[in-house]
Amino acid sequence: MILQVCNRTEYIPGIAHPFLIMLPTTSTPAAGKKRIYVVEHMEPEIGAWSTLEYIAISTESAASGSDFYLTSVPPSLAEDLPESLRRYIDAPLKVTSREVTQLPEIHADRVCLLDPQAVEELSPADADVFEAFVFGGILGDDPPRDRTAELRKYGYQGRQLGKIQMTTDTAVRVTRMVIEEQQPLAKIPYADYPELKLNKNESTQMPFRYVKGKEGEPYMPEGMLELIKEDADKSFDDFF
């Protein structure tokens, strides 16, 4: 079963948000090609964190005219998506229980696996080499686990985005910037291990790399800061 998921019409690029900015797009020959971004979902559920990331990827894919596949989703889970994600049913996101190798749209010789263990970094020149980009849907593990190893069995060519751990939506975002906007990895502004203010007395440091916004803030999906605050409150309550 495949579900089509797209961005909400009420989402308006440019709306101010404490930790959300819209990245400018540029028109280049490479950007004119339709790309496919595939996240192999590697968990038994789709939690609140993943839901926000998948919504962000879907929204940005729609804006760039690319496709977003969420693959290897258990059938029972595909039929019971979180309501906030189900609201996006339509292009560009397609949710399927099939593995990436079973998608007829995917040609193995044109697929890039984003692999932290790959020797070669992703570069703008790869826009002429690859059409589809595959990610493991647990890139944001802390501490990092080499779950991408489960995807190496497909034999796809690998590229890495640097040695610092990224969230899944950040990895897709950075790939899009390199491939569609032709920005070298070294030229992209990053916010590494940002410290987020939870309230006037508390803060938390995120163990990931993000794309940096105009004011130096980490680019996060809408609602992520609030979710982080909620999780921090729950952790604090566990002490009592």
From TrEMBL:
Protein source organism: Tuber aestivum (summer truffle)
InterPro entries referenced in this protein's UniProt entry, alphabetically: SFM1-like
Pfam families documented for this protein: SFM1-like
GO molecular function: protein-arginine omega-N monomethyltransferase activity
Protein name, UniProt field: DUF431 domain-containing protein
